[in-house]
Amino acid sequence: MATSNLPPQTLSVGTYTFTISEGGESDIPEFCDVFDIAFASNLLFNTMSGTKEAAAEEAKKAPKPEPILGTNSKAQEAFKTQLFEMRDKWLKKDDMYLMNILAVLPTYQRLGLSAALLAPVLKLADREGKKTYIEASEAGEKLYRRLGWVETGDTISLNFTEFRAEGKVDIPLMMREPGAANTL
Fold first, then answer.
1. Residue 1: pLDDT band by 50, 70, 90 thresholds?
2. Model's pTM, two decimal places?
3. Which pLDDT belongs to residue 151?
4. 59-95 burial, b for 16+ CB within 10 Å, e for fewer?
5. Which CATH number among 3.30.450.20, 3.30.160.20, 3.40.50.1100, 3.40.630.30 corresponds to the domain 9-176?
6. Would you list the domain boundaries of the chain?
7. Which long-range contacts (CB under 8 A, 24 or more apart) does 100-106 make?
8. What's the rounded Cα separation, in Å, for the pair 181 and 171?
9. 106-142 residue pLDDT tens
């Protein structure tokens, strides 16, 4: 796991106080728990993913683990193909940051925690004059727009009926220019 050399940070949001620090391999099961709870109603992740216990174990292996029990491998492969194609198109690694997965437990949602977690990175990107790119979940789109992201015009689209499942997802790809939305 990459290290950032950032010291732990304390963050107060409303009546809550959080300590944010870099995670390690031993934190993977808890990360999986938070992800599973935060994205419990997300069609994309529910259609593609196996169990969190198996995911935590497989995450420790490299470079490419076997599919996790219950994984819809064909849907997962279709998603990864589109994901990598779009990242190849939009990511210019020297002049931008990629915002990956942001998950907040439902108990702590709508308190400003996501914006508070993003703020230090966005301030850094602004200071360095770098763009930030994100594949937006439906739940996060409103926040991302408020923080200055705009749609690129491209989406990652999956129709799960092609993979013996139900539903369809469209994931908008969004870019934030340095200094966009001065709400930080």
1. very low
2. 0.71
3. 95
4. beeeeeeeebeebbeebbebbeebeeebeeebbeeee
5. 3.40.630.30
6. 9-176
7. 101/35, 102/140, 103/34, 103/35, 103/38, 103/39, 104/34, 104/38, 105/34, 105/37, 105/38, 106/37, 106/38
8. 22
9. 888 888 888 888 888 888 889 899 999 999 988 889 9
